[in-house]
């Protein structure tokens, strides 16, 4: 840390590091070594070999450090956690010798790797692994793979949840009026709407009549009828897309209509059989109390 802070990370047993003479040398002379190898050497080399002293200072030293410290926090994605700013990206990994997979590093700091997948550009990881193979390094620590994949899974669910929230879904059954068979027949005979019964739901398919691939006549002749068996393969086995679209035309629930379905799960559109739901602590506690 360059500046003092009131934040404290807590105690850690670093007795093994305190006994390592090389690490202690680096610790005692950190700022001097940082200036020599981070600024002076990158600036001198272009000046000595190519006579470009200003380029060495501005590009090899200053710009390089700026990119290395900032690109890892704004370029790329957050595949493991998005609570903090570090991100993963191949370009920043190339520019920073593997540090570009910064999201992984901050989420799993005990892991000797910067990149989880073997093919991701992380020369530091490969160098340490090679040293371990040659007996020059030992006790390489890795975070449990199950927990790493759990973080990946969580972030993918969050992304899918955001997409899910932008989609318009079929109306919930609880929000629809409950209609008797007699009312359903009366509305169908009125002639201003084409209503069909499928899976216990009444559907107003008036706007779909001229779009139906099977023709207008099939839809019109089905008004006021229970077409569940025909829709589920009796006449034609409709696609998942057809099931999803049909659910958007729901306008009511037939009183006792669900009893006519041999498989109640068919009333659920394929697109809604896997739904991402957010749980909070209060909800979990309520469900646990009900289970007792």
TrEMBL record:
<feature type="domain" description="Cytochrome b5 heme-binding">
    <location>
        <begin position="176"/>
        <end position="255"/>
    </location>
</feature>
<protein>
    <submittedName>
        <fullName>Delta-9 fatty acid desaturase</fullName>
    </submittedName>
</protein>
<dbReference type="InterPro" id="IPR001199">
    <property type="entry name" value="Cyt_B5-like_heme/steroid-bd"/>
</dbReference>
<dbReference type="GO" id="GO:0020037">
    <property type="term" value="F:heme binding"/>
</dbReference>
<keyword id="KW-0560">Oxidoreductase</keyword>
<comment type="similarity">
    <text>Belongs to the fatty acid desaturase type 1 family.</text>
</comment>
<dbReference type="InterPro" id="IPR036400">
    <property type="entry name" value="Cyt_B5-like_heme/steroid_sf"/>
</dbReference>
<keyword id="KW-0812">Transmembrane</keyword>
<comment type="similarity">
    <text>Belongs to the cytochrome b5 family.</text>
</comment>
<dbReference type="GO" id="GO:0005506">
    <property type="term" value="F:iron ion binding"/>
</dbReference>
<keyword id="KW-0479">Metal-binding</keyword>
<dbReference type="GO" id="GO:0004768">
    <property type="term" value="F:stearoyl-CoA 9-desaturase activity"/>
</dbReference>
<dbReference type="Pfam" id="PF00173">
    <property type="entry name" value="Cyt-b5"/>
</dbReference>
<dbReference type="InterPro" id="IPR018506">
    <property type="entry name" value="Cyt_B5_heme-BS"/>
</dbReference>
<dbReference type="InterPro" id="IPR001522">
    <property type="entry name" value="FADS-1_CS"/>
</dbReference>
<keyword id="KW-1133">Transmembrane helix</keyword>
<keyword id="KW-0444">Lipid biosynthesis</keyword>
<keyword id="KW-0276">Fatty acid metabolism</keyword>
<dbReference type="GO" id="GO:0005789">
    <property type="term" value="C:endoplasmic reticulum membrane"/>
</dbReference>
<keyword id="KW-0408">Iron</keyword>
<feature type="transmembrane region" description="Helical">
    <location>
        <begin position="30"/>
        <end position="50"/>
    </location>
</feature>
<dbReference type="InterPro" id="IPR015876">
    <property type="entry name" value="Acyl-CoA_DS"/>
</dbReference>
<dbReference type="GO" id="GO:0006636">
    <property type="term" value="P:unsaturated fatty acid biosynthetic process"/>
</dbReference>
<keyword id="KW-0349">Heme</keyword>
<keyword id="KW-0443">Lipid metabolism</keyword>
<feature type="transmembrane region" description="Helical">
    <location>
        <begin position="126"/>
        <end position="143"/>
    </location>
</feature>
<keyword id="KW-0275">Fatty acid biosynthesis</keyword>
<keyword id="KW-0472">Membrane</keyword>
């Amino acid at each position: 840390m360059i500046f003092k802070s009131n934040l404290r990370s807590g105690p850690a047993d670093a007795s093994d590091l305190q006994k390592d003479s090389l690490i202690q040398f680096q610790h005692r002379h950190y700022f001097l070594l940082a200036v020599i190898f981070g600024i002076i050497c990158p600036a001198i080399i272009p000046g000595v070999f190519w006579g470009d002293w200003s380029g060495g200072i501005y590009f090899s030293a200053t710009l390089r450090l700026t990119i290395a410290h900032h690109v890892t926090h704004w370029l790329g994605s957050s595949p493991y956690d998005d609570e903090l700013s570090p991100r993963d990206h191949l370009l920043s990994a190339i520019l920073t010798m593997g540090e570009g997979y910064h999201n992984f590093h901050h989420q799993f700091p005990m892991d000797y790797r910067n990149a989880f997948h073997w093919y991701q550009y992380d020369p530091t990881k490969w160098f340490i692994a090679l040293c371990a193979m040659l007996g020059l390094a030992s006790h390489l620590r890795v975070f449990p793979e199950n927990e790493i994949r759990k973080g990946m899974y969580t972030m993918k669910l969050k992304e899918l949840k955001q997409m899910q929230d932008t989609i318009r879904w079929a109306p919930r059954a609880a929000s629809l009026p409950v209609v008797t068979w007699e009312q359903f027949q009366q509305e169908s005979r009125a002639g201003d709407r084409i209503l069909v019964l499928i899976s216990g739901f009444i559907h107003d398919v008036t706007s779909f009549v001229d779009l139906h691939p099977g023709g207008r006549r099939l839809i019109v002749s089905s008004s006021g009828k229970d077409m569940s068996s025909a829709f589920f393969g009796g006449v034609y086995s409709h696609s998942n897309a057809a099931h999803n679209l049909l659910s958007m035309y729901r306008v009511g629930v037939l009183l006792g209509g669900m009893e006519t379905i041999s498989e109640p799960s068919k009333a659920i559109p394929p697109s809604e059989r896997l739904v991402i739901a957010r749980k909070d602590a209060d909800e979990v506690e309520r469900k646990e109390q009900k289970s007792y």
